[in-house]
Amino acid sequence: MKPHFTPVADSAVLVTFGKALGEDVFQSIVAFDKALQQSPPSGMVEAVPALVNVLGIFDPVQTDHVELQVALEKLLSGMSRNVLQTQNRVVQVCYDGPYAPDLKAVAQACGLSEEAVIAAHLSGDYKVLMYGFAPGYAYMGGVSPDIQVPRKTAPVRDIPAGSVMIAGAQCLVTTVKMPTGWSIIGRSPTPILLDDPARPFLFDIGDTVTFERISVDDLLKAMG
Q1: Measured between alpha carbons, how far is 62 from 132 in angstroms, rounded to an integer?
Q2: Angle of helix 114-122 relative to helix 103-110, nearest 10 degrees?
Q3: What is the pLDDT of residues 28-52, one digit of tens each?
Q4: Number of domains in the chain
Protein backbone atom coordinates (compact mmCIF):
# COMPACT_ATOMS: atom_id res chain seq x y z
CA MET A 1 0.00 0.00 0.00
CA LYS A 2 1.31 3.42 -0.93
CA PRO A 3 1.54 5.69 2.14
CA HIS A 4 -1.54 7.88 2.57
CA PHE A 5 -1.25 11.44 3.93
CA THR A 6 -3.95 13.07 6.07
CA PRO A 7 -3.76 16.60 7.53
CA VAL A 8 -4.54 16.65 11.24
CA ALA A 9 -5.70 19.83 13.00
CA ASP A 10 -3.42 22.78 12.23
CA SER A 11 -0.08 21.25 13.13
CA ALA A 12 0.27 17.61 12.05
CA VAL A 13 0.29 15.19 9.13
CA LEU A 14 -0.65 11.53 9.55
CA VAL A 15 1.22 9.08 7.30
CA THR A 16 -0.62 5.75 7.07
CA PHE A 17 1.16 2.63 5.76
CA GLY A 18 -1.65 0.08 5.87
CA LYS A 19 -5.05 -0.87 7.24
CA ALA A 20 -3.78 -3.55 9.61
CA LEU A 21 -0.54 -4.39 11.38
CA GLY A 22 1.71 -6.75 9.41
CA GLU A 23 5.43 -7.30 9.00
CA ASP A 24 5.72 -5.07 5.92
CA VAL A 25 3.78 -2.25 7.59
CA PHE A 26 5.83 -2.66 10.77
CA GLN A 27 9.15 -2.51 8.91
CA SER A 28 8.01 0.57 6.98
CA ILE A 29 7.06 2.39 10.19
CA VAL A 30 10.35 1.52 11.90
CA ALA A 31 12.36 2.67 8.88
CA PHE A 32 10.35 5.88 8.52
CA ASP A 33 10.64 6.68 12.23
CA LYS A 34 14.41 6.23 12.15
CA ALA A 35 14.69 8.31 8.97
CA LEU A 36 12.75 11.10 10.68
CA GLN A 37 15.08 10.95 13.68
CA GLN A 38 18.14 11.21 11.44
CA SER A 39 16.81 13.85 8.99
CA PRO A 40 13.76 15.65 10.40
CA PRO A 41 12.13 18.00 7.87
CA SER A 42 12.32 21.72 8.55
CA GLY A 43 9.66 22.80 11.03
CA MET A 44 8.86 19.30 12.26
CA VAL A 45 9.00 19.00 16.05
CA GLU A 46 8.00 15.40 16.81
CA ALA A 47 7.23 12.04 15.19
CA VAL A 48 4.79 9.68 16.93
CA PRO A 49 4.82 6.14 15.49
CA ALA A 50 1.79 3.88 16.02
CA LEU A 51 0.68 0.45 14.78
CA VAL A 52 -0.08 1.40 11.16
CA ASN A 53 0.89 5.06 10.90
CA VAL A 54 3.22 7.84 12.01
CA LEU A 55 2.04 11.28 13.11
CA GLY A 56 4.35 14.11 12.11
CA ILE A 57 3.82 17.15 14.34
CA PHE A 58 5.09 20.50 13.09
CA ASP A 59 5.40 24.13 14.15
CA PRO A 60 2.78 26.01 12.06
CA VAL A 61 4.90 29.17 12.26
CA GLN A 62 7.69 27.42 10.35
CA THR A 63 5.82 25.19 7.88
CA ASP A 64 2.38 23.90 6.90
CA HIS A 65 0.63 20.68 5.85
CA VAL A 66 1.53 20.97 2.17
CA GLU A 67 5.22 21.76 2.70
CA LEU A 68 5.62 19.04 5.31
CA GLN A 69 3.92 16.44 3.11
CA VAL A 70 6.27 17.28 0.23
CA ALA A 71 9.25 16.88 2.59
CA LEU A 72 7.92 13.59 3.96
CA GLU A 73 7.29 12.20 0.47
CA LYS A 74 10.86 13.07 -0.49
CA LEU A 75 12.17 11.36 2.64
CA LEU A 76 10.09 8.26 1.91
CA SER A 77 11.31 8.04 -1.69
CA GLY A 78 14.92 7.80 -0.54
CA MET A 79 14.30 5.61 2.47
CA SER A 80 15.91 2.19 2.77
CA ARG A 81 14.81 -0.62 5.06
CA ASN A 82 18.01 -2.59 4.49
CA VAL A 83 20.07 -0.73 7.08
CA LEU A 84 17.75 -0.84 10.06
CA GLN A 85 19.69 -1.06 13.30
CA THR A 86 17.65 -2.30 16.22
CA GLN A 87 18.70 -3.67 19.59
CA ASN A 88 17.66 -6.67 21.62
CA ARG A 89 16.67 -5.61 25.13
CA VAL A 90 16.68 -8.08 28.02
CA VAL A 91 13.91 -7.71 30.60
CA GLN A 92 14.06 -9.75 33.80
CA VAL A 93 10.81 -11.16 35.17
CA CYS A 94 9.77 -13.09 38.26
CA TYR A 95 6.71 -15.32 37.77
CA ASP A 96 6.32 -16.39 41.39
CA GLY A 97 3.61 -16.01 44.00
CA PRO A 98 2.08 -12.58 44.58
CA TYR A 99 4.03 -11.09 41.68
CA ALA A 100 1.99 -13.07 39.15
CA PRO A 101 -1.61 -12.77 40.38
CA ASP A 102 -3.21 -13.80 37.07
CA LEU A 103 -0.85 -16.62 36.12
CA LYS A 104 -3.18 -19.34 37.41
CA ALA A 105 -6.21 -17.86 35.60
CA VAL A 106 -4.28 -17.63 32.33
CA ALA A 107 -3.15 -21.25 32.71
CA GLN A 108 -6.73 -22.41 33.31
CA ALA A 109 -8.09 -20.39 30.40
CA CYS A 110 -5.48 -21.85 28.05
CA GLY A 111 -5.63 -25.42 29.37
CA LEU A 112 -1.97 -25.33 30.38
CA SER A 113 0.09 -25.70 33.53
CA GLU A 114 1.51 -22.54 35.05
CA GLU A 115 5.00 -23.65 34.06
CA ALA A 116 3.83 -24.12 30.46
CA VAL A 117 2.46 -20.57 30.44
CA ILE A 118 5.79 -19.29 31.73
CA ALA A 119 7.68 -21.27 29.09
CA ALA A 120 5.40 -19.92 26.36
CA HIS A 121 5.90 -16.36 27.57
CA LEU A 122 9.67 -16.75 27.68
CA SER A 123 9.70 -18.11 24.13
CA GLY A 124 7.66 -15.26 22.61
CA ASP A 125 9.00 -13.30 19.63
CA TYR A 126 8.65 -9.77 21.01
CA LYS A 127 9.03 -6.52 19.08
CA VAL A 128 8.34 -3.01 20.37
CA LEU A 129 5.48 -1.70 18.23
CA MET A 130 4.64 1.66 19.78
CA TYR A 131 4.40 3.75 22.94
CA GLY A 132 1.11 4.91 24.41
CA PHE A 133 -1.17 5.44 27.42
CA ALA A 134 1.59 6.29 29.94
CA PRO A 135 5.29 7.30 29.91
CA GLY A 136 7.47 4.40 28.76
CA TYR A 137 4.41 2.21 28.16
CA ALA A 138 5.82 0.10 25.31
CA TYR A 139 3.38 -2.13 23.47
CA MET A 140 5.12 -5.32 22.31
CA GLY A 141 3.75 -7.79 19.80
CA GLY A 142 4.72 -11.46 19.73
CA VAL A 143 2.88 -13.25 22.53
CA SER A 144 2.63 -16.96 21.76
CA PRO A 145 -0.82 -17.99 20.45
CA ASP A 146 -0.85 -20.65 23.16
CA ILE A 147 -1.29 -18.03 25.91
CA GLN A 148 -3.25 -15.29 24.18
CA VAL A 149 -6.15 -14.29 26.41
CA PRO A 150 -8.56 -11.35 26.10
CA ARG A 151 -8.62 -8.38 28.43
CA LYS A 152 -10.58 -8.71 31.64
CA THR A 153 -14.17 -7.49 31.65
CA ALA A 154 -13.30 -4.87 34.28
CA PRO A 155 -9.99 -3.16 35.13
CA VAL A 156 -8.17 -3.61 38.43
CA ARG A 157 -6.82 -0.54 40.23
CA ASP A 158 -3.37 0.21 41.65
CA ILE A 159 -1.31 -2.27 39.67
CA PRO A 160 2.34 -1.63 40.62
CA ALA A 161 5.07 -0.50 38.26
CA GLY A 162 7.07 -3.36 36.77
CA SER A 163 4.06 -5.61 36.26
CA VAL A 164 4.49 -7.84 33.21
CA MET A 165 1.13 -8.20 31.48
CA ILE A 166 -0.44 -9.79 28.42
CA ALA A 167 -3.64 -9.29 26.44
CA GLY A 168 -4.24 -10.88 23.06
CA ALA A 169 -1.01 -10.88 21.08
CA GLN A 170 0.53 -8.02 23.04
CA CYS A 171 2.71 -7.75 26.12
CA LEU A 172 3.96 -4.80 28.15
CA VAL A 173 5.72 -3.82 31.36
CA THR A 174 4.06 -1.08 33.42
CA THR A 175 6.16 1.91 34.44
CA VAL A 176 3.84 3.60 36.96
CA LYS A 177 1.07 2.48 39.32
CA MET A 178 -2.09 2.31 37.23
CA PRO A 179 -5.34 0.41 36.57
CA THR A 180 -5.37 -2.33 33.96
CA GLY A 181 -7.59 -4.99 32.46
CA TRP A 182 -4.62 -7.01 31.21
CA SER A 183 -3.49 -10.29 32.81
CA ILE A 184 -0.54 -9.86 35.17
CA ILE A 185 1.80 -12.84 34.93
CA GLY A 186 4.99 -11.51 36.49
CA ARG A 187 6.99 -8.64 37.93
CA SER A 188 10.14 -7.07 36.49
CA PRO A 189 12.84 -4.99 38.21
CA THR A 190 14.34 -3.90 34.88
CA PRO A 191 14.28 -0.08 34.61
CA ILE A 192 12.17 1.12 31.67
CA LEU A 193 12.16 4.82 32.56
CA LEU A 194 15.73 6.06 32.33
CA ASP A 195 17.16 9.16 33.99
CA ASP A 196 18.47 10.50 30.68
CA PRO A 197 16.71 13.32 28.77
CA ALA A 198 18.41 12.17 25.55
CA ARG A 199 17.10 8.63 26.04
CA PRO A 200 14.13 8.60 28.42
CA PHE A 201 13.02 5.00 27.78
CA LEU A 202 14.79 1.64 27.55
CA PHE A 203 13.21 0.64 24.24
CA ASP A 204 13.27 2.08 20.74
CA ILE A 205 10.46 1.34 18.32
CA GLY A 206 11.45 -1.82 16.43
CA ASP A 207 13.65 -3.26 19.19
CA THR A 208 13.30 -6.92 20.05
CA VAL A 209 12.80 -7.99 23.66
CA THR A 210 13.91 -11.12 25.47
CA PHE A 211 12.39 -11.98 28.84
CA GLU A 212 14.73 -13.62 31.35
CA ARG A 213 13.34 -15.51 34.32
CA ILE A 214 14.58 -14.62 37.81
CA SER A 215 13.74 -15.84 41.30
CA VAL A 216 11.90 -13.97 44.06
CA ASP A 217 15.23 -13.44 45.84
CA ASP A 218 16.75 -11.92 42.70
CA LEU A 219 13.68 -9.72 42.24
CA LEU A 220 13.77 -8.41 45.80
CA LYS A 221 17.50 -7.82 45.60
CA ALA A 222 17.14 -5.88 42.35
CA MET A 223 14.25 -3.83 43.75
CA GLY A 224 16.39 -2.86 46.72
Answers
A1: 27
A2: 90
A3: 999 999 899 889 999 999 999 999 9
A4: 2
